[in-house]
Amino acid sequence: MCGRYDLSSTPAAIRAHFRVPEVPEFAPNPDLRPTDRAPIVRVSRDGVRECVLARWGLVPAWAKDLAYGSRCFNARSETAATLPSFRGAFRKRRCLVPVDAFFEWTGERGHKTKWRIAFDEPAPFALAGLWEWWRDPAAPDAPAVETYTILTTAANAAIAPLHERMPVIVPVDRHAEWLSATGDDAGLLAGVGAEHVRISGPV
Question: Is 104 a catalytic residue?
Fold first, then answer.
């Protein structure tokens, strides 16, 4: 799973790495949590790659309130294409989630160790995400709220000692394929578990 991550990179670093023309101002956060707002990268209606701020925890359009997102901060890659909460976004609203690292915990409650997991190179990298929009049914004229979730997959050999799941990591040469929503999903998601990440914790 992925319940916390670090995004300490600057807007300039995200702009360069993800090849977007602009990145909205945001406060770097070394410990992002569900319901926080953070940058995501997606393709606009005009077919141009863009970066926007969204709320972590996907809320489908039919949900009654934003609280729905508190249990949808992750989506299993094996079932996202079929579950009602995620299938629309999986088909049409994919995104990349910029991160510097993600975290996992081991140990018993009250004595847990927090582990930082990142690439060998200190640059932002991308997690596979899905985004949605939601409008409060009690305030139909209010602006829509954009939310997102992070896809997970079976842990690779490096992460398995910490947890059985890990976020889906999208390598740079497959960013466009993921965002296009027309690529070979099975092939893309099957390969990500072999990405080279390192455990740099505990923190």
Answer: yes
Q: Which of 51, 72, 95, 104 is catalytic?
A: 104
Place of tokens 């990145």: 23
| Alpha carbon separation from 46 to 42, 164, 202 (Å, rounded) | 11, 39, 43
pLDDT in tens, the chain (203 residues): 789 999 999 999 999 999 999 999 999 999 999 999 999 999 999 999 999 999 999 999 999 999 999 999 999 998 998 999 999 999 999 999 999 999 999 988 888 899 999 877 667 999 999 999 999 988 888 899 999 999 998 888 888 889 899 999 888 888 998 998 765 565 556 545 445 566 776 76
Place of tokens 């406060």: 27
Domains of the chain, start order: 5-199 (3.90.1680.10)
User: Is there a catalytic annotation at residue 72?
Assistant: no
**Distant-in-sequence, close-in-space partners of 90: CB < 8 Å, separation ≥ 6:** 80, 81, 130
pTM for the full predicted model: 0.92
Q: Which of the residues 2, 51, 72, 95 is marked catalytic? A: 2
Cβ contact 20:39 at 8 Å: no
